[in-house]
Amino acid sequence: MIFEFFFLIFFIFASFGLALVLFLITYNLKPSVSDAEKASIYECGFTPLSSTRQRFDIKFYLVAILFIIFDIEIAFLFPWTLVATEVSAVVNFWVFLFLVLLTVGFYYEWVSGSLKWH
Prior knowledge:
The protein is an all-alpha fold. It has helices at residues 6-29, 36-39, 58-82, 89-112.
């Protein structure tokens, strides 16, 4: 019975061993940090010495929400494309309506100027 799991146990130990060897190699070969500025944390171009409670422009949130909406759209449309010919016309109608609503919403944002970066 133990022979059936031999390869699994071998690969688990080999994976941990390889990870440990790579960690030790990089830990021993890394360059030493001689400057305190190089050791400081870099956070997306913001000065780490200022307050962390800064107000962000609403445009950042708009871009994030648009990304999430169109990411969810892809998550819904990809499975549908695989079975589009096998589902009923009602399902295809609801997918078409979903796409129309997203297109109308995107067009409204485009026309209202909320996508312009000032």
